[in-house]
Amino acid sequence: MKKKIVIIGGGIGGLSAGIYALKAGFDALIYEKNPVAGGECMGWNRNGCHIDNCIHWLTGTKQGTSLWEVWKTIGAIDENTAYADTKKFYSSRLDGKEATLWKDLDRTKRELIELSPADEAEITKLIEHVKLAETCTVPADKPLDMMNLFDYMNMGKSMAGMPKVMKEYGNIDLRALAARFCSPLLAKLVTDYLPAEYTAYSFIVSYATITSGNGEIPLGGSLAMTNRIVKCFKDMGGKLFTNTAVKNILIESGTAKGIVLENGEVIKADAVISAVDMNVLFDRFLDKTFTPKDWAKAYQNSSDYPIISGFQTAFVTNAKLSGRDTVFFDCKPLTIGNRSFNRLSVKNYDYDPSFAPEGKTVLQVNLPQTDEDFLYWKSLSNEEYTAKKQELAAQITERIIKTFPELDGNLTLLDCWSPLTYERYCGAYHGGYMAFTTKPSVKKLKCNGRIKGLKNFYIAGQWIMSPGGLPVALVSGKYAIQRILKKEGRPVII
Ligand SMILES: Cc1cc2nc3c(=O)[nH]c(=O)nc-3n(C[C@H](O)[C@H](O)[C@H](O)COP(=O)(O)OP(=O)(O)OC[C@H]3O[C@@H](n4cnc5c(N)ncnc54)[C@H](O)[C@@H]3O)c2cc1C
Description:
The protein contains 16 helices and 19 strands. It is an alpha/beta fold. It folds into three domains: 4-41 and 66-80 and 222-303 and 439-487, FAD/NAD(P)-binding domain (3-Layer(bba) Sandwich), CATH 3.50.50.60; 88-216, no CATH class; 309-431. The strands form five sheets. A seven-stranded mixed sheet has the order 7-6-15-16-17-14-18. The protein has a five-stranded parallel sheet with strand order 9-2-1-13-19, covered by helices on one side. Strand 15 (326-336) and strand 16 form a beta hairpin. Helix 3 (105-115) runs antiparallel to helix 4, helix 4 (120-133) crosses helix 6 (162-169) and helix 4 crosses helix 9 (200-211). It is globular, with a radius of gyration of 22 Å. The mean pLDDT is 95. It binds flavin-adenine dinucleotide. The site of flavin-adenine dinucleotide (FAD) has 39 residues, from helix 1 and helix 16.
């Protein structure tokens, strides 16, 4: 009889675990609390438009890479996938000037030097290191802790450019990188996209993913990709139970024997994989004694281990911000709790015709949010929460129109949502949608996908490896199955 693997959470991590479990010959059952699977890799419809809530870039779209093979295995993309025809990563505006990070690195270099000749040496260095960082990848064949010397040597060879990148940008944050530029515009350019406390190499690697063609956006967006993965899981014989929240893990004598659903039903299993946010696992599913000490400390120290979330608004317009993708610009300050924001970004979803009716364009604004912002939102009553969202949406509308006057009278709010939305919908810790932010000089948390003292239990999901995100969620599901295979003494390459 086939062994039965029960997976909690139908996000990308859980779906990946499910598909790899089936591939390895197990029965796979996924329990998801929401009406649909996908977790944070999601999109929804409003007023005839589609709001894509995830993929800004999908790492692993380059054919021939190990990560691409894993995406293909779970049915997310294949040789025929069509991608958005975007030309740039994003642009930053300041004092009437605009700087752009193009996919074409030579063009970026040329234009940035034209904008600030005094920064030529720093620009040249940055561009050289982005080129080197194009070799960076997420290990997709097997988890780091299962690798032998030979595997490490191969990985080192394939990521040949990375040691230089880490040496130059691994020990400074983005604020320090910005300080290297004379031009205030270029300083904004390197701090606009990711939080300023992020390690500088995160920015270099993100941009390199775009320039190398390994970070495209599949047409149809996040929801369409999730639906392809769900179809693959079901076609292979997997069982997905939606609207089925899990309450905790059934543990007997230090061994996971199954799960208990919120409705009290007990589901027995030969192995249990948790693919929910790590905080849901530690805070709700397991007794506190199972929380590893370094994780418990991290949850108490948001200064060293911050999360990143967003207050987001989506609009539809009949006009086009032609040729633009994402643009950051200065604005009159707006406040959330004690924090003030004086820069906004508008992302133009014009690249995907399926997101809006003919002649219309969806625009989104994402205001970065922190642990402190989350606690502010949490402190509000229902009425205050609704009123604050409406107030912010109106202020954001006013500021967009100030920068793009052509949108005056032609901008309709579709929806707005906050870090609390991610907490409610996915159980995301403080509404965070990546793992803890990677800061220089702060020890990275490690997770080998197991819990000490708990047999037959495995962890998947983006939290197993910094910085999280879709590629980590993807490989985490595969890793969980490889760990089960290893325990059974079977070959782990699947
Ligand atoms: C706005 C935004 C933009 C993003 N952009 C990108 C991007 O461009 N590139 C990128 O790589 N990543 C991006 N990400 C991050 C990416 O979406 C996540 O890293 C990834 O989807 C996480 O997958 P996961 O499976 O680990 O977790 P989740 O997606 O959180 O899945 C966990 C699942 O568990 C379910 N669950 C929780 N509690 C229970 C319970 N008690 N019982 C049953 N089920 C439960 C949840 O409902 C959820 O479906 C973005 C995220 C957001 C929100």
